[in-house]
From TrEMBL:
Residues 208-374 form the Helicase ATP-binding domain. GO terms for biological process: DNA recombination; DNA replication initiation; DNA replication, synthesis of primer; double-strand break repair. The gene is priA. Belongs to the helicase family. PriA subfamily. One of its GO terms (molecular function) is ATP binding. It catalyses: ATP + H2O = ADP + phosphate + H(+); Couples ATP hydrolysis with the unwinding of duplex DNA by translocating in the 3'-5' direction. This is Replication restart protein PriA. Component of the replication restart primosome. Residues 468-626 form the Helicase C-terminal domain. Binds 2 zinc ions per subunit. Its EC number is 5.6.2.4. Zn(2+) 2 binds at C442, C445, C460, C463. Initiates the restart of stalled replication forks, which reloads the replicative helicase on sites other than the origin of replication. Recognizes and binds to abandoned replication forks and remodels them to uncover a helicase loading site. Promotes assembly of the primosome at these replication forks.
Length: 727
DNA sequence: TCAAAAAGCGGT
DNA sequence: CCGCTTTTTGAA
């Protein structure tokens, strides 16, 4: 009689399915193998997640595995365990989780053909050839990179930001030849090492000394304190033990420069996984890491599921970053899963940030994480001078106060650059008729349309609605339409008027949507000419602008008064990050924050004492109110074509759950603050428990009832464990 | 998620 | 009662 296996089938059902494993497959079943299976009337690819199972389904109803798709299991048993745990923890269908853990090409039955990457190295006679034309900067710089690395694959070269055309030019010019054997990885961590200060040294030795055992570190380092150097040194130590490294980076931070910094330190050993790669390229990186061919993975959220031969160190950079949390479907936190993986592999994990999340600070306070602090800025840089500008009853020029404009003027005169931060793109967030008070609202959302002047459009930032900018009021035909409030586009125009002689460069989603446009804007800024940068949070993340000595923050007040208790934490982090753009070793920076509430205690703490005390104050508040991270929470969201429909569904779930008591609370159904979004009405149930098992048990009941409820036509719902937003 | 089966529905 | 669309159901 053939054996039974449980298969994770890619469908939205919260359970695995049992299949017969016939002798005719010609091999034994193994955990983690991909298999082709009949399911309903279709044929799907699943993953074996349990062997020798006993099930009570009559054997005549069981179907058999059709085909084994792997030679070796695609997912090691350790990862299968992790997937099952995470499906459970986040209350998401197990089959869907396993589909997401695999690279896209492995989700189909296609035979995984492994064609070896082509590596290129300098040709034997490259030195005798004439140099490439001196204006061919890209070619010259690529030559230098390859010379240093020894050999690189097409993929790696592309990752470093060189186009195929540049590589081809070098090949055609005879500078390069194909390398037949992949380079013996050289562990050469000494080439461009920077000197470490005492704090960095301490951090590196703490991490190095715990290699080979599970240990959790929170590396709290202010901007410019040299966190990356700590990572690189720790990585070198880990490689020296013959082990591999998983490094997670927020999507926005995984730039060619970052890759280049790792690649130049560890030539030939780095692979990247990010959204800019094609499915095939991602698969190649995945394979190189899982086979042990490469040792260091630099990746974004989903890279946390990559299999390793011998994982020896996990690093999560900018651990507070929201992009680590998947915001739809399987709402996992890559940061939390990374910690779990480190535990599974018995290796240290380092969470790094200049503005650690309250979760992590709380963990550190509870001695679950060991705190490593980098207080000194590397070099002799002084802390920037941060000042609050009280703009109550001030005359603002398109949102800019006179003090800020004067400071900008002085900064530009001195030959430096100015950064103006406003987390709101477009020209103005509100278009109103002066005659009758009409306001341009979105027809599909409970939101105002944002005016985009350059495109002469009204756009909704919550759905894809857009329409032509009207010339007259559609209600009273008055032509006096007024733009209320500034956006980045308006600031750009206004600053161009004030400073016609300098470049004003705007960086937001509207100016950087084209591929590569971000890079060219950033390069333009880096050449150091006096200029003004205007932008949204895109400016705050990832890129550093060494010549900026004045940062102006236009409107941060919104974050202080949000319905979401996490808003101040996020605003504070953003503010500190933006402020961190100002100044460097030899040029002290200034940060001016325009505000209507200069007496706000949290804002004052942040400005006068810094992020740590600010965060401690927020944490104390959370403690007082028993909010996360002190307690644990989950949100069940529903949206439907009518509010009633969503609310009724949630109410039905609530009626099955335990009533609130002193260890557990349930609130809702509450309509979302912006109830209607993209034509759908949204509501939520908010669950909170003192202990995780309570929350988990209630969620299991909730999911069960949710699945059972004959769901009304258009209703959609989801469960979010450890949410980062209430709605 | 997907596709077959069942249930509605207007038109004769 | 046909032919069409919409809704429900079940999957090992
Ligand atoms: Zn009007
Ligand atoms: Zn809208």
């Amino acid at each position: 009689m053939s054996k039974l296996v449980t298969v994770a089938v890619p469908c939205p059902l919260r359970r695995g399915f049992d299949y017969l494993w016939p002798e005719s497959l010609g091999r034994d079943a193994e955990i983690g193998l991909r298999v082709s299976i009949p399911f309903g009337r279709q044929q799907l690819v699943g993953v074996v997640i349990a062997l020798d199972v006993i099930c009570d389904i009559p054997s005549n109803k069981l179907k058999a595995v059709l085909k084994v798709l792997d030679e070796q299991p695609s997912l090691a048993a350790e990862l299968v365990q992790l997937g099952r745990w995470a499906a459970d923890y986040y209350h998401h269908p197990v089959g869907d989780c396993f589909a997401q853990m695999l690279p896209v090409v492995l989700r189909k039955a296609s035979p995984p053909k492994e064609k070896p990457a082509q590596y290129w190295q300098l040709s034997a006679n490259w030195e005798e050839l004439p140099q490439p034309a001196s204006r061919a900067h890209q070619q010259i710089s690529l030559l230098a990179v390859i010379r240093q690395a020894g050999q690189l694959s097409r993929r790696q070269i592309k990752d470093l930001g060189y186009s195929n055309a540049v590589l081809n030019a070098l090949i055609n010019g005879g500078y390069l030849q194909q390398a037949d054997t992949p380079a013996a990885p050289s562990i050469d961590a000494n080439n461009t090492e920077l000197a470490l200060n005492a704090e960095q040294q301490h951090a590196v030795s703490a991490v190095s000394n715990s290699l080979g055992q599970f240990a959790r570190y929170l590396l709290d380092g202010v901007t410019g304190s040299g966190k990356t150097e700590v990572y690189l040194r720790s990585i070198a130590e880990c490689l020296a033990r013959g082990e591999q490294v998983l490094t997670l980076i927020p999507e926005i931070g995984l730039t060619p420069q970052t890759l280049e910094r790792f690649e130049s330190r560890f030539p030939g050993q780095v692979r990247a996984l990010h959204s800019g790669l094609s499915d095939g390229e991602r698969y190649r990186s995945w394979q190189d890491i899982s086979s042990g061919r490469a040792r260091i993975l630099l990746g974004t959220r989903s890279a946390v599921f990559t299999p390793f031969q011998k994982l020896g160190l996990v690093i999560v950079d900018e651990e507070h970053d929201a992009s680590y949390k998947q915001q739809e479907g399987w709402r996992y936190s890559a940061r939390d899963i990374a910690v779990k993986r480190a535990a599974d592999h018995n290796c240290p994990v380092v969470l790094g940030s200049a503005t650690p999340s309250l979760d992590s600070l709380h963990n550190a306070a509870q001695d679950r994480y060991q705190l490593l602090e980098l207080r000194e800025r590397a070099g002799i840089a002084s802390k920037p001078d941060i000042r609050l500008l009280d703009i109550r009853q001030q005359n603002l020029d398109e949102g800019l106060s006179k003090t800020l404009l004067d400071a900008a003027h002085d900064t530009l005169q001195a030959g430096n650059q100015v950064l103006i931060f406003l987390n709101r793109r477009g020209f103005s967030p509100l278009l109103q008729c002066h005659g009758c008070g009409w306001v341009a609202n979105c027809h599909a959302c409970d939101a105002k349309m944002t005016a985009h002047f350059g495109r002469r459009e009204l756009r909704c930032h919550h759905c894809d609605a857009r329409e032509a900018l009207p010339n007259i009021c559609p209600q009273c035909h008055n032509s006096q339409l007024i733009f209320q409030g500034p956006g980045t586009e308006r600031l750009e125009l206004s600053l161009k008027r004030h400073f016609p002689e300098v470049d004003v460069i705007r960086i937001d989603r509207d100016t950087t949507s084209a591929k590569g446009s971000m890079q060219s804007l950033v390069d333009g800024i880096r050449d150091g000419r006096p200029s003004i940068l205007v932008g949204t949070q895109m400016l705050a993340k990832g890129h550093h602008f060494p010549d900026v000595t004045l940062v102006g923050i236009i409107d941060i007040d919104g974050g202080l008064f949000s319905a979401d208790f996490r808003a101040p934490e996020r605003s504070g982090q953003l503010l500190v990050q933006v402020a961190g753009r100002a100044g460097r070793a030899d040029k002290p920076g200034r940060v001016y924050i325009q505000t209507h509430c200069p007496d706000h205690p949290a804002l004052l703490a942040l400005v006068s004492e810094g992020y740590q005390p600010f965060a401690q104050q927020l944490l104390a508040e959370r403690q007082l109110l028993s909010l996360p991270p002190v307690s644990f929470s989950a949100v069940i969201r529903a949206d439907a074509s009518s509010l009633r429909c969503a609310e009724d569904f949630l109410a039905a779930i609530r009626s099955e759950l335990a009533p609130s008591d002193n260890t557990w609370s349930i609130v809702g159904p509450l309509p979302a603050p912006m109830t209607r979004k993209a034509g759908r009405f949204r509501a939520a149930l908010i669950l909170q428990a003192e202990r995780r098992p309570t929350l988990h048990r209630q969620l299991a009941i909730a999911c069960h009832t949710g699945d059972q409820l004959s769901k009304h036509k258009s209703l959609r719902w989801s469960v979010d464990v450890d949410p980062i937003d209430l709605f």
